[in-house]
Amino acid sequence: MKIGVLTSGGDAPGMNAAIRAVVRQADALGHEVWGIHQGYQGLLEGDMAPLPSRACANILQRGGTILHTARCAEFYFAEHRVLAAAKLKATGIEALVVIGGDGSFRAAEALQREHGVACAGIPGTIDNDLPGTERTLGFDTALNTAVEAIDRIRDTASSHGRLFLVEVMGRASGMLAVHTALACGAEAVLYPESPDDSYEALVSRLNSNWLRGKRSSIVVVAEGDTTGRAMAVGERLKRDHGLDLRVVVLGHVQRGGSPSAIDRIWGSRWGCEAVRRLDRGERGFYLGEVAGALVAQPLSRILEPQPVPPGDLGRLVSVLAR
Ligand code: ADP
Question: How close is the Cα of 222 to the center of ligand 1, in Å?
């Protein structure tokens, strides 16, 4: 069998580990892997080539994705997916492993439903916002990167007695923000799913901290927070309360870097499992982790709207910031 593999959407550390595992497990089972470059854009353009085992040497520890990634506006339209399916057929690719997030899985689901392409999904996004899995590739690495950065910011915050607003990634999900805040002992965290996520609540929290004698504070802000991005919240606090604060947007620093051991291990496990299942004739699934165990979900589950809130960890942040 010829198996295609692509990475799509935002890059995430650990994607290379998954690519390597797909290639080498396929090799072990006698299948051939083709690498499709730049996600669905490359698929539409026929930008694909055989990906041999030796091409995956020394990629396990590298961030990003050797296959490159892209966002592809055409893929939202059925007529373009017809062309994509034709490219796969012309190359003799019968199965497709898609490493990406929610959007990438939606595209795979459509390809399989409309054109019978056997698809397998491996969760790759630093947001960790997919239903049916407690882990996605890149989350653990991005979390550790953000924590390391904020530890440095904490030193200067406490030396100057200053408030820092630190923006982390997460357009629709507070998962990264809340875990980061908990791991670096932030005084507050603003994130889209928060029950008491308001500017007023933040001001009252900072006030009571001040009255308790806290002179420096770190507030972690998810980029998709409803009160606004860190820069806007900072401007408002300066204007209303004359606070001497600083805003740091961690931005793309969080995406890059060598994947953590955990992301390498799950990339490897999911890559192997995807190929083993395709080899057994399974199709239309995506892999995940629940309570430490490797699990599979039907790809169609991605169509059900299911928010993945970060539980009550956000509340712990404020309890521990006393
Ligand atoms: P992620 O996979 O990280 O969630 P995106 O949401 O940007 O990233 O999706 C990646 C790509 O997948 C999009 O650029 C598009 O090509 C394709 N895609 C996303 N959603 C759909 C959809 N509903 N139907 C078809 N293709 C989609």
Answer: 21
Distance (Å) from CA 136 to ligand 1 centroid: 16
Q: How far is the CA of 273 from the centre of ligand 1 (A)?
A: 23
- Which of 7, 8, 44 to probe ligand 1 with, by most ligand atoms within 8 A of CB? 8
Q: Which of 11, 47, 127, 197 is catalytic?
A: 127
Does the annotation mark 127 as catalytic? yes
CB-based contact 9:103 (threshold 8 Å): yes
DSSP conformational letter for 260? P
Q: Tokens 């995807």: give the residue.
A: 274
Q: What are the structural domains of the chain?
A: 2-138+259-303 (3.40.50.450), 140-255 (3.40.50.460)
Query: Strand, helix or coil at 276?
Result: helix
Strand locations in 70-216, DSSP E? 93-100, 118-123, 163-168, 188-190
- pLDDT tens for the chain, 322 residues: list them: 999 999 999 999 999 999 999 999 999 999 999 999 999 999 999 999 999 999 999 999 999 999 999 999 999 999 999 999 999 999 999 999 999 999 999 999 999 999 999 999 999 999 999 999 999 999 999 999 999 999 999 999 999 999 999 999 988 889 999 999 999 999 999 998 887 768 898 999 899 988 989 889 999 999 987 787 899 999 999 999 998 899 999 999 999 999 999 999 999 999 999 999 999 999 999 999 999 999 999 999 999 877 777 878 988 998 898 8
**Is 121 in contact with 285 (CB distance < 8 Å)?**
yes
Report residue 171 as tokens.
């357009």
